[in-house]
């Protein structure tokens, strides 16, 4: 590993942000509530939701949990969404994805009240991202932006390649980074991209969001690039990212898995809940 390589520590930044959020909630005497709708028994989803509520307890946000069985119908999930939309104690909420097979996530997400959309995934809020208007931003793209920026690395004018075009990371990240706040030039690649290697060799910053363990290898990356690993796959009792260890020898900075983007993503959810509440007060 190069002596100058920088490890982008998401845990440290998340801890700092949570301290700041906790003091803002206390000083402004805010009564905030984060709602979660969890459908089914997926262990990763249960683990993520438990982590989100632990974070809430740390900063002084109340937890409102709705858990439904794997067999829940679309109408039962929509009833849970309606319940949180009308709950005055709930300032923002999320529907934990993925939903069980046979449930159209878009139908569910569209029914979230946009002013309570803590994940920033309602079509209206994604539309505001396109228009560069203020709205809750999807949490993982926000976390990636902050993780790089807060470590003194500029996005401006950079050639950025995103591996993956999913609606929670790849697509909104492309919008965020190509917007006026970041001013990067973004290429979003996917399974049908021609000559992926030439795109990657040109990239100054690479964001891997595929969910394919060890996909990004050393020979695919240019010397001195910045690499952000968003992939998270459980193999046995280990969490593994999309970036192969060999890449770390060549880069100037990278985010580890675990401890990189993940903790900061959860902190961004808390920040969204705080900002949604403040907006409703004005």
Q: Strand order of the main beta sheet, please?
A: 1-11-8-7-5-6
Could you list the spans in which at least 5 consecutive residues all have pLDDT below 50? Answer: none
For the sheet with most strands, the description reads:
6 strands, parallel
What are the secondary-structure elements, in order, as H or E?
A: EHEHEHEHHHEHEHEEEEEH
Secondary structure: helix percent: 25-40%
Shape: globular
Write down the domain tally: 2
The CATH class of the largest domain? Alpha Beta
The number of distinct helices, counting runs of at least 4 residues, comes to 9
Derived from helix and strand composition plus strand pairing, the structural class reads: alpha/beta
Distance between the termini: 50 Å
Mean pLDDT: 95
**Rg:** 19 Å
List how many beta strands DSSP finds: 11
Fill in the CATH topology of the largest domain.
Rossmann fold
Question: Could you say what the CATH architecture of the largest domain is?
Answer: 3-Layer(aba) Sandwich
**CATH homologous superfamily title of the largest domain:** NAD(P)-binding Rossmann-like Domain
Strand content: 15-25%
Structure description:
With 282 residues, this protein is of the alpha/beta class. The protein has two domains: 28-113, Leucine Dehydrogenase, chain A, domain 1 (Rossmann fold); 138-262, 3-Layer(aba) Sandwich (Rossmann fold). It contains nine helices and eleven strands. The strands form three sheets. It has a six-stranded parallel β-sheet with strand order 1-11-8-7-5-6, with helices on both faces. A three-stranded parallel β-sheet has the order 3-2-4, sandwiched between helices. Helix 2 crosses helix 9. It starts with 5 loop residues before the first strand and ends with a helix. The relative contact order is 0.16.
